[in-house]
Structure formats: C-alpha cells, structure tokens
Automatic annotation (TrEMBL):
PROSITE patterns: GATASE_TYPE_2 (PS51278). Gene3D superfamilies: Glutamine Phosphoribosylpyrophosphate, subunit 1, domain 1. GO terms for molecular function: hydrolase activity; transferase activity. InterPro entries: EgtC-like, Gamma-glu_amide_hydrolase, GATase_2_dom, Ntn_hydrolases_N. It is an enzyme of class 3 (hydrolase). This is Glutamine amidotransferase. Residues 2-284 form the Glutamine amidotransferase type-2 domain. Its EC number is 3.5.1.118. Keywords: Glutamine amidotransferase, Hydrolase, Transferase. It comes from Nonomuraea muscovyensis.
C-alpha cells in the first residue's frame, strides 16, 4: 500500500513536515510501522497550492523518497499553506511517473492508499463510466486515478462527500457482481485549494490507518514550552497515514467509515460516511 500526508494551515516549508519530525513521512518510506508493507519505495509525489495560482503544482518521481536529492532541495525552498505528500507501494500497476500520486485535474488534487480488489477485471467497466470529457485526461493505469475521475464524474466539484460515496458505491456494486466480496479499501485525500476532504472506508470495515492532529490550542495547553506550536494558526491541521514525531496527545485516529473536512464546516470536522449516502450528524 502507501503512506500519505496532508498539511493545511499556517504557511510552512515542506521540509518542516516532510523531514523534521522523527519519525517523518520520509522515514516511513523506508520503515513504515503501520503499513501493509514496511518499505514504500515505488515512487513519491508532492503537490502544493500558492495564494495567487488556482491550480496546484505537482512534482512526482518513480524512485524512493528517502534518497531523492531533488525532493530534499525542493522541500527546503517551497513554502505553502496546503500541500499533499505521498509515498507509493504499488499494488500491481507499473512503477511509472503517471502512476505516482497525487493526481491533479484543474484545481483538484487527489491521493489514495488502498486498492480496488479485482481491478484488473473491473477496470474496463469503471473507465467506461467516466465522463467522456474527462476520460482523455487519465494518464496512468492505477485504480487510484480511476477512482479520482469517477469522483469527478459524480460531482466532486459540487458535493465531494457525495461524489466519493457514489464512486465507492459503484465499485462495490460492480465488484459484488463478479464475486469480489470486499472490493473497496481506501483512505483518500482530495482538495480544491480551499478545503481538504479526507475519507477512511473499506468494504470489510477494516480500513487502513488514518490520523488527524489535535487542535493547536489544545496542544499548546498540553505543551506550553514547545515554541513552534505558537507559530501555527488555530486552524492548522495535519492528516497522516501514521503519526509523525512523538509529541504526546498530538494524534487522533479517524473513525472507521468516516470523513473529515479541513477547515471544519459549521464547527464539525468529522462526519459519518457510507457508500449509500451520508448518514448521521457530525461526530467530531
């Protein structure tokens, strides 16, 4: 599988989040503690937004993140209020640049950890469902990119949670038709540059790990002597496949079958998620 990270909040250098924590996402590319694979060396990608450009920048490569000098160089010079970072462990598709995350279409970024079980048999039917106007923009061969373009087809611009639910529901329905018992395994991050949506869901209800950071004000109260916490805005959040660093009380597991919004909408960061639609009130 893969490991990924989302940062949203006070503009910081990418290196502050990618490299500085111990363990960091770069450490996880070589020694993941919670992933299906210990090593995630089948490529990496970073994407970020700036204040004056609507579309995100994307940098991707097929080599491992832990020894990439260009990634180190970029991360020491790029400052952003919102960025994605992803380290890849292929589930069977080719190790090539167009298969590395994050994926981009217009103002949207998307990245994924997990898989569509039976994707080799489902791929044709899934791709035929993609909006014909969007289809030419698909560059790679992964299930992750297919999920992205299905979500775009199902209204990601207007209703991100609903679009992702419809996408996952379609995968489950088609998977069940060919005898795949548990078609969907996913943690997903999507952003339009203004907000970030993160999802944790699987058909088996045993989803890959996903954690979000405790609110900055609470962390300041817990750790009043940690200087860098005082430089962050109250709405700063990080979402990760597995925790970074060792700051006590910093991380909370995203509940099974739920999604989160950053910055929070109507004071609620988390809500229940179901492939047949959204259910229940906010839970966070």
């Amino acid at each position: 599988m893969c490991r990924w990270l989302v940062y949203s909040g006070t503009p910081v250098l990418l290196s502050d989040v990618l490299y500085r924590p111990v363990p960091s996402l770069i450490d996880q590319s070589l020694r993941s503690r919670m992933g299906v694979e210990t090593t995630n060396g089948d490529g990496f990608g970073i994407g970020w937004y700036t204040d004056d450009i609507d579309t995100p920048a994307i940098v991707r490569d097929t080599g491992p993140a832990w020894n990439n000098r260009n990634l180190r160089e970029i991360s020491d010079h790029v400052r952003s209020p919102l960025f994605f970072a992803h380290i890849r462990a292929s589930t069977g598709t080719a190790v090539q640049q167009t298969n590395c995350h994050p994926f981009r279409h217009g103002r949207w970024m998307w990245m994924h950890n997990g898989l569509i079980a039976g994707f080799d048999r489902l791929r044709r039917d899934l791709l035929l469902t993609v909006d014909p106007e969007l289809f030419p923009h698909i560059e790679g061969t992964t299930d992750s990119e297919t999920m992205f373009y299905l979500a775009l087809t199902f209204g990601l611009d207007e209703d991100p949670p609903g679009a992702v639910a419809r996408m996952a529901g379609l995968v489950e329905r088609l998977g069940h038709q060919i005898g795949v018992e548990f078609p969907v395994q996913m943690t997903i991050a999507a952003s339009n540059g203004e907000r970030v949506w993160v999802f944790r869901y699987s058909s088996r209800r045993e989803s890959r790990t996903l954690f979000y950071s405790t609110c900055v004000e609470s962390l300041r109260a817990l750790h009043p002597d940690v200087a860098w916490l005082h430089r962050l805005s109250a709405d700063t959040r990080i979402v990760v496949s597995e925790p970074l660093g060792d700051l006590q009380g910093a991380w909370n597991e995203l509940p099974e079958s739920s999604y989160g919004v950053i910055p929070a909408q109507d004071g609620e960061m988390l809500a229940a998620f179901d492939v047949h639609g959204l259910t229940g009130p906010g839970i966070g």
